[in-house]
UniProtKB/TrEMBL annotation:
InterPro entries: Fe-transptr_FeoA-like, Fe2_transport_prot_B_C, FeoA_core_dom, FeoB_GTPase, G_FEOB_dom, Gate_dom, P-loop_NTPase, Transcriptional_repressor_C
GO cellular component term, pick one: plasma membrane
Species, as recorded: Elusimicrobium minutum (strain Pei191)
Name of this chain's protein: Putative indolepyruvate ferredoxin oxidoreductase
Protein keywords: Iron, Membrane, Pyruvate, Transmembrane, Transmembrane helix
Length: 650
């Protein structure tokens, strides 16, 4: 566990009182002065604490207090002693919010477990100490199950840190204590932060931190992560721990689970007070969302409303931005490149009808056509996540998803895939086995298109009647579920049983919701946009070298024989590897029949992932598994599209 932070080397005159530092160098060239410094213990590598910053400065070094004038202090350069602090706890207890409060670095914190799937860290000042804070993915115990659990367990068990801050959830205080006891037994200086205490109190749950501290002999502070209450007290407690690392006395923790739960019972009895309150309408609605009889109709209504909101918002943004792009940006950027050389073709396009410019088409596709839908999708997704609906939807879909080889938790990346496949593929990290990840990848690639592609399918087929739109989505749904069921039958192993916490139902806070949406937009800009631009570049190279024309000619005959499509559409089909929604839109000039459009949309949705998705999949699943998945989806899409074509002929 390492933080890639530079050593903070400054003059002794620049540090604050009560700051621990190490002497880096003495800049004076005077041998007598250097000798004088040495006699007082001020040598390279010596540890010091500044007690008074005004001249004369007062230092504590080698157990002695030393007064030093500012002119002499300027000749001493020091570096901060950077301590390591780990934030640990169960999933969904609010560690990421606390990480943001402590460091100022924005981290996504949603109302469903598994949000933190990679280690985040930042170096910051807490009180008088310089500290690198690590946000460790949430775990329920120190025995690893999934890949994310394994990495988190290794970090905690390695004990390569100075202080552990264990975050407990006031709403689920009893459950949080089990991991807290396991962590405390490691013997590292520990602070308990009981988060969400204010919202828990509103529901009749009160925790006495002094009683917890008394029983476990461990400093305990209550905080409210979202509002920031209690963090001054928490920072003081962390600073005190860091200054007295050797003083911390590890309490005796029972070795057996039975002993731990007995101790937990004692803590809960003495430290927790419950007041009965009748469930609110919102809490009753949360219960209805997990019952099949009421949950399925609610899910249908919610997802339908979300789809139309996303489509409306995306189309409105595109209709607003496209004229600005075409009337202002495009003429300006093309005027800068008068010649028609290779560089111009690559940067602004124009070499042929299949030529896409990096500074023109790539930016229009990435920042207008796609990002309009991505922003709308993540705004809805983060709202539902903070509300607590996504875990309830996972519970609702668990029994159905078991039939196709994954548990309900796998619904989250699949739902994300309805917006954009790139973050959805990244989301498979939360699944436990290679088998489950393989099936989940196939499902999210085949079950339904991404939001921008869905909008294009609706746009191009709506003039022929909504029944054809429904036909495409119905075929994709049936094919995806059938493929999952098939893989579940032939692949060794069984889908794991669901084990997931259902968080409290809560209304999202606008500021935090906007921060998380912005974080997702940045993730898209840095992860997906460069891959889209790189894909455009590859297509241009393929077009200029004749590879694209050759592939188009080779695939013309199969397109006509298997799908009943004009041979000219083969080049458009190949462009689907770059951007499927744009390729579907490019079918319009061919004046295809409804049957041909249905066949083309089914094939183009499933046959291969887009460039950005392929690159992310290679990173997440590896080359071998990615190649097998692409080969499988290509074979199934060819068979299904062919069957659709021949059924229309009957």
């Amino acid at each position: 566990m390492q933080a890639n932070s530079e050593e903070n080397i400054i003059s002794l005159t620049e540090i604050r009182p009560d700051t621990n530092v190490t002497v880096h160098e003495i800049t004076s060239q005077d041998p007598k002065l250097i000798k004088k410094f040495s006699s007082l213990g001020i040598i390279k590598g010596a540890h010091m604490v500044l007690k008074k910053s005004k001249s004369p400065m007062v230092l504590e070094v080698a157990g002695t207090k030393v007064a030093l004038g500012r002119s002499m202090a300027e000749k001493v350069r020091v570096k901060f002693d950077v301590k390591k602090l780990v934030l640990v706890g169960n999933p969904n207890v609010g560690k990421s919010v606390i990480f943001t409060r402590l460091t100022g670095i924005k981290a996504v914190s949603s109302n469903f477990p598994g949000t933190t799937i990679a280690l985040k860290h930042s170096t910051t000042g807490i009180g008088s100490e310089k500290v690198t804070v690590f946000d460790v993915p949430g775990i329920y115990n120190l025995e690893a199950c999934s890949k994310a659990d394994k990495e988190a367990c290794e970090i905690v068990l390695k004990k390569d840190y100075d202080v552990m801050v264990c975050v407990l959830d006031a709403h689920h205080f009893e459950r949080s204590l089990y991991f807290a006891l396991e962590a405390l037994a490691l013997g590292k200086p520990t602070l308990f932060l009981i988060n969400k205490y204010k919202s828990a109190k509103a529901k009749g749950i009160t925790i006495d931190p002094r009683m917890v501290s008394k029983i476990l002999k461990t400093p305990t502070v209550v905080v409210e992560g979202l509002s920031g209450e209690g963090f001054k007290t928490a920072a003081h407690a962390i600073t005190k721990l860091l200054k007295n690392l050797t003083v911390f006395e590890t309490p005796k923790i029972p070795a057996t689970d039975e002993g731990k739960w007995k101790l937990i019972g004692e803590i809960v009895t003495k430290a927790q007070t419950l007041k009965h309150k009748h469930p609110s309408m919102l809490e009753m609605f949360a219960e209805w969302c997990t019952r099949p009889l009421t949950g399925l109709p609610i899910a249908a209504v919610i997802l339908t409303i979300c789809f139309f909101i996303i489509r409306f918002a995306g189309e409105t943004a595109i209709d607003t931005l496209t004229p600005l792009y075409e009337n202002y940006y495009l003429p300006f950027i093309t005027s800068l490149f008068a010649d028609k050389g290779m560089l111009t073709v690559i940067l602004v396009g124009g070499g042929s009808e299949n030529s896409f410019g990096i500074l023109t088409d790539a930016l229009q596709i990435a920042l207008i056509d796609v990002m309009s839908y991505v922003i709308a999708f993540y705004a809805i997704l983060e709202f539902l996540a903070d509300l607590g609906y996504l875990p309830r939807l996972s519970v609702l879909l668990d029994s159905m998803l078991h039939k196709v080889g994954i548990h309900g938790y796998g619904a989250i990346p699949i739902i994300m895939g309805l917006g954009c496949k790139v973050p959805a593929v990244m989301g498979i990290r939360i699944l436990e086995s290679k088998r489950e990840k393989f099936i989940a990848l196939v499902l999210l690639l085949m079950l339904a298109p991404c939001i921008s592609q869905s909008a294009m399918i609706i746009t191009i087929l709506s003039p022929h009647g909504l029944k054809y739109v429904a036909m495409v989505f119905g075929i994709l749904l049936i094919t995806g579920l059938a493929s999952g069921a098939f893989l579940n039958k032939i692949m060794k192993g069984n889908p794991p049983d669901m084990f997931m916490e259902i968080p409290a139902w809560q209304m999202p806070k606008i500021k935090d919701w906007l921060i998380k949406v912005w974080y997702r937009i940045k993730e898209y800009l840095f992860d997906a946009v460069p891959l889209i631009i790189f894909g455009i570049f590859l297509i241009n190279i393929a077009e200029m070298t004749g590879v694209l024309d050759w592939l188009a000619k080779v695939t013309q005959a199969p397109m006509q024989a298997l799908f009943g499509l004009p041979g000219e559409t083969s080049s458009v089909m190949l462009l689907g590897f770059l951007r499927k929604d744009v390729s579907i839109a490019l079918l319009s000039p061919f004046n295809l029949t409804a049957a041909q459009l249905v066949t083309a949309c089914v094939f183009m949705t499933m046959y291969v992932p887009c460039t950005a998705t392929v690159f992310v999949m290679l990173k997440e699943a590896g080359i071998k598994q990615s190649v097998v998945i692409i080969a499988f989806t290509l074979a199934i899409s060819t068979a299904v599209a062919s069957a659709v074509h021949f059924l229309f002929l009957i």
